[in-house]
Design goal:
Strand content of chain A: 15-25%
Structural class of chain A: alpha+beta
Largest sheet of chain A: 7 strands, mixed
Keywords (chains A, B): ATP-binding, Kinase, Magnesium, Metal-binding, Nucleotide-binding, Thiamine biosynthesis, Transferase
Pathway (chains A, B): Cofactor biosynthesis; thiamine diphosphate biosynthesis; thiamine diphosphate from thiamine phosphate: step 1/1
Shape of chain A: globular
GO molecular function, one term (chains A, B): thiamine-phosphate kinase activity
Family (chains A, B): Belongs to the thiamine-monophosphate kinase family.
Largest interface: A-B, 65 and 65 residues
Enzyme class (chains A, B): transferase
Oligomer: homodimer
Distance between the termini of chain A: 35 Å
Strand order of the largest sheet of chain A: 8-10-7-11-9-12-13
CATH class of the largest domain in chain A: Alpha Beta
Helix content of chain A: 25-40%
Chain lengths: 343, 343
Amino acid sequence: MTENRRDEFGLISYLTGRQKVPTALGERITVGNGDDAAIVAGRTGYEWIACCDTMVEDVHFKRQTMLPSDIGHKALASNISDVAAMGGIPLFYLVSLGLPHTWNEEEIAEIYDGMATLALRYNMALIGGDTVAVPGPLTLTVTVLGEVEQDHGLLRGNARPGDAVFLTGTVGDSGAGLDILLQEQWGVANVPVEWMSLANRHRLPEPDVKAGRLLATSGIRIALNDISDGLASEAWEIAEASNVRLVLEEAAIPLSAPVLRYADMSGNCALDWAFYGGEDYRLVGCVSAEYKESISQAFAEKELPLYWIGEVQAGSPEVRIHWQSGKSTTLPKKGYNHFNGER
Amino acid sequence: MTENRRDEFGLISYLTGRQKVPTALGERITVGNGDDAAIVAGRTGYEWIACCDTMVEDVHFKRQTMLPSDIGHKALASNISDVAAMGGIPLFYLVSLGLPHTWNEEEIAEIYDGMATLALRYNMALIGGDTVAVPGPLTLTVTVLGEVEQDHGLLRGNARPGDAVFLTGTVGDSGAGLDILLQEQWGVANVPVEWMSLANRHRLPEPDVKAGRLLATSGIRIALNDISDGLASEAWEIAEASNVRLVLEEAAIPLSAPVLRYADMSGNCALDWAFYGGEDYRLVGCVSAEYKESISQAFAEKELPLYWIGEVQAGSPEVRIHWQSGKSTTLPKKGYNHFNGER
């Protein structure tokens, strides 16, 4: 620890004190932060969702690409997105922070503030965690607990031949945003106004909890996955878990105007970011084609975006792409690696 | 990743496949490993317990002091101990592993095997996690979910004047064990048979879940804390959370025969390890003195150790020690720092 940092206990209570507990959640917290463990109450008719995810400096983010508050935001957002992909409601989170001495107390507080701001928007409460000084890169592990109605979880293995494939938003924005943030002349501090929206999609992604809830409460069998590693990799996960073939239409893949403009300007292919860029945190799913209209209508009523991008066929697990040229090819299963090119 | 390591997905499924799911728990797991998140069922009349803890190479362990399987064991054990300190039943765990390229696949598998072996003994199941390559020390974050009967959590703030203070086992063994493992001529591979039991108390601690359950189901108001940072630090936490003074009797602090022998041999003070050594994972607690006999009897019937070590008085938060010499002094609040002396 550097001299301008408190001891572990002081630091933890300083950091955890920065988070307000939403009123609605307070009565479900029997024991919050500050004891050996937290105790929280369940709800009749609901099951618990649990997930955890780690972000590491220079693997998942660099100082050049993310502000400290962005790091906190994204670490929590990626877990909320996993809960959204199960159709659930995020409730509680625990934070384990491995801190190198090169980060000062103000920056650490900003990491926690990034989480707290997002958490409050989703009515979530911080209930525990751990802070430890590490002789290495900053490492942030977030665990999220949520809940979903019994038997309503939306699993990757739910896709069937005859399903239609949907997406809850445009993809590729975060990948393009990372490319922008990695430009030496820009970085997080100097992104031109024109590309700010793309950079923000990388820095401050919003998980699709509302879309997940709409799908979970529909009572329809739906396969669902969140896009953390690119559309190709996540579609492959559904194909393999469901033992089906997904056929996507190139013409139907939703690309935002800024992504197309930035791809043009920088000589990149926007679809590469859509398929193999990561951290868009949109949901990709499959549902029987007979429900296309009713689901489209439900999304429209809530003013949530929805795009139909392909269909599910019987066959060995595969993701195929039907190009506008008329050709069809297998979409490579490769995923997303932040700073080292393809995985 | 080194070449003898699989890619992330291959590695995760290889590692998580090493853990058997206890039959009794299987039907409570709606979704286990392999989807975006796990879904598990609660039980009527119970609340959930959640905690997480991080272990970092060269901060919490060294290659010299711990085998890979020990690291897995202890990371899980420290969380189980937090559940025990709430009087709860540990059920599920999630693992986030930050892996430097200097660890090979066999060693990583041993870390998971260390967790799996301990988990099976406590009827726990692995339900999720994350593996990421890191340019730094090995970092292992374990989250444990457990349950406890509604309103039966044993909190640090439950102590009252007139309570008796108890310990569920000897303390100082782990601290002495670490001292042994740090001797250059020994290390984890060559500890003399005579000191093996102490080294094992450091490498493979057993959390006191049975004791915690016995106390939680007694229906009596009890303050409880697990000893991860030394008796002094944990007793101080109870004193501060309960706003009382704890007065401990030096003569009553239980020290094992090996600790006393090794302290003699090495010129150390056994009580220093008891007060300021860490990771004994015994429970320290306070309960109204009128229950001393009935609790002693209940522990004896289950063949669980129990020691009465002092009393709780009204007064500003403090931990005092009544020495055999007749003198009383404040016990310093300092805790445990693995390799850098006192905190």
